[in-house]
Amino acid sequence: MSAHNADGCSCGGGGEWNTNQKLFSDADSQELHRLLLEKSFQFGEFTLSSGKKSSYYFDGKQVTLHPQGALLTAKAVLEKVRGKGVQAVGGPTIGADPMVGALGVVCALEGVDLGLFIVRKDQKEHGRRLRIEGRKITPGEKVAVIDDVLTTGGSILTAVAAVREAGGEVVLAVVLVDRLEGGTETLEGQGIPVAPVFTVKDFGL
């Protein structure tokens, strides 16, 4: 199987990735929406990691660690990044971990060559003392940062800082669900476009 980058350009000979055919179909979107509504949303009184109070809680890992949910999430992310010149995709542990793993399988099936990584909360204190696990980011490389949910943007900005420290250029942030609580504005203020698969408005919130 030949490999191609997310721009549809050949990385190993052979034909081009078919950019005319949607990888993430409308039927896929409807099924992922159903899974998220059924499995990831809980309603009540919650305190979020940002300290904010909320009438609902979103647990994206109930879907990103679900077999069908993992597949659909990976297809959605790949659809968002293609055509953007992205060379590597990764995000903050632990929200991005299952997304990156599933993305690796879908990339292999589709013949797409993307560097994949996750960003630790803290640098390891032993071994190679890495902050970024997985494929090494090279200077000037175009990177998309992903996460399962976007609230204030703090988690993604932590990953962005690590990527930039490694010399990468963050050109896009892709999130499964945007809570519409200021995170998009924060990231765009850092020059990072945001591409959510869904926003909470898609779930009537």
Provide a concise account of the structure shown.
The protein is an alpha/beta fold and 205 residues long. Helix content is 33%, strand content 25%. The protein has a single domain, classed as Rossmann fold.
Can you characterise this structure?
There is one protein chain. By secondary structure, the protein is of the alpha/beta class. It has one domain (26-203): Rossmann fold. The protein contains six helices and eight strands, in the order H-E-E-H-H-E-H-E-E-E-H-E-H-E. A six-stranded mixed beta sheet has the order 5-4-3-6-7-8, sandwiched between helices. The protein has a two-stranded antiparallel sheet with strand order 1-2. Helix 1 crosses helix 3. The model is unreliable at 8-16 (pLDDT under 50).
**Total separate domains:** 1
Question: What is the CATH class designation?
Answer: Alpha Beta
Instruction: Please report the distance between the alpha carbons of the first and last residues.
Output: 43 Å
Strand order of the largest sheet: 5-4-3-6-7-8
| Arithmetic mean pLDDT | 88
Biggest β-sheet description:
6 strands, mixed
- Give the DSSP E fraction (strand runs of 2 or more residues): 15-25%
Helix count, per DSSP? 6
User: From the coordinates shown, what is the CATH architecture?
Assistant: 3-Layer(aba) Sandwich
Would you count the extended β strands for me?
A: 8
CATH topology value: Rossmann fold
Overall structural class, as computed from helix and strand content, comes to alpha/beta
Portion of residues within helices? 25-40%
Low-confidence stretches: 8-16
- Which overall shape is indicated by the principal axes computed on the Cα atoms? globular
Rounded to the nearest angstrom, the radius of gyration is 17 Å
> What's the order of the H and E elements?
HEEHHEHEEEHEHE
